[in-house]
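User: Could you check the structure of this?
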Amino acid sequence: MLTVDELEPRPEPPEEPSLFSGNYEEKLNAWNFRRLLAGQYDVVVTNPPYMAVSNTHITDEMWTSAALKIDRGIGKAADTGMGEATRQEAVPKRAPFQPHKGKRRKPGTGCISRINDHLWEGRFSPVWPDGVKRPRNIYAHDRETCEQRLAELIAQTKAEIAAEKARRAGERHPA
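Assistant: Sure, the predicted structure tokens are below.
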């Protein structure tokens, strides 16, 4: 965003060009751009890709200040009287880092989903020895209980599958 309140004087060419003096042509082009737009517009807003790496130093206070200037310009209102303390309060505080649990679970551990505000569903869908996938569900009022019940359901189901495999193996090879 570029606010054109006053047009600064035309940049002067450096007496002795150096690596650290900056690019005079870029400064002159930017000044000409501002001069051209100052006659028609109060504020110029560009798309975010134009603000890539070069403007990563912008702080929350700068964003708040720019938003206040835009509000004053759009509403044609005078200064809202926000003092420095109020501006600091307007800056959103960043939340402390919280690790995020991934959405994907390991294979064979079932899935848990929230059905509504007070009900969770645990689902386990193993493939039985006959090749049919038979889903089993459990329900609980909180996630922790659902995790415990799902672990019990998985252990019980795996024991049933093992017993079924042993029964089928005994049918094939009678002693």
